[in-house]
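Figure 3 (text version): structure tokens given as input.
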């Protein structure tokens, strides 16, 4: 699939078929993540592959907006060593997006579940909830979870309306950019 087509076809898929993601595709998703750039090439990330049904169900309870993980056959939890890099958020975000895009190219669907800065309930952060569930060491920060699987919903690719030319300036902020 041509790269621009991958970009247009990338939609958030939150319902999945009851079908395992083959090991070789899981490996490709992880390779896509490892191909990410990172500040000073520190590569602070650590990915947790989850296909255990019970754990996926528990992850779906991490916060509001995570429920799609209950039908996902696979989740990749994106973490990074916050002591290794002061820009671990950026590094981990790029890796997460690589996974999200690679899924499209591989005929899979996926969605991003934000964990950092989100709450599980009034007392506990979503990050703490996920940390406890998956035994993640304190120095590793949890950015997000990418739920992955074969889509059980059909979403159209993004159309022309996605291109918000009014959000582009030319040479100076506020000067219209003429295509
Ligand atoms: C930083 C970030 C956090 C997101 N958090 C969630 C989330 O917690 N749960 C969810 O279902 N979708 C989440 N999304 C997906 C967005 O809702 C989605 O990308 C947006 O609605 C646009 O739809 P599209 O992905 O189909 O283009 C998140 C996306 C990003 C980039």
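Below: residues designed for each position.
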């Amino acid at each position: 699939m041509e790269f621009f087509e991958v970009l247009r076809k990338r939609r958030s898929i939150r319902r999945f078929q009851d079908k395992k993601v083959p090991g070789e595709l899981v490996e490709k998703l992880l390779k896509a993540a490892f191909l990410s750039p990172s500040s000073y090439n520190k590569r602070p990330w650590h990915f947790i592959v989850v296909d255990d049904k019970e754990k996926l169900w528990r992850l779906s309870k991490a916060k509001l907006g995570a429920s799609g993980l209950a039908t996902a056959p696979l989740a990749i939890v994106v973490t990074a060593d916050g002591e290794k890099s002061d820009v671990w958020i950026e590094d981990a975000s790029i890796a997460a997006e690589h996974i999200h895009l690679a899924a499209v190219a591989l005929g899979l669907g996926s969605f991003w579940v934000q964990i950092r800065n989100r709450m599980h309930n009034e007392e506990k952060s979503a990050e703490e909830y996920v940390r406890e569930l998956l035994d993640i060491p304190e120095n590793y920060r949890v950015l997000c979870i990418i739920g992955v699987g074969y889509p059980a919903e059909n979403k159209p690719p993004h159309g022309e309306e996605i291109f918000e030319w009014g959000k582009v300036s030319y040479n100076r902020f506020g000067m219209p950019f003429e295509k």
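Residues 88-105 form the longest helix (18 residues).
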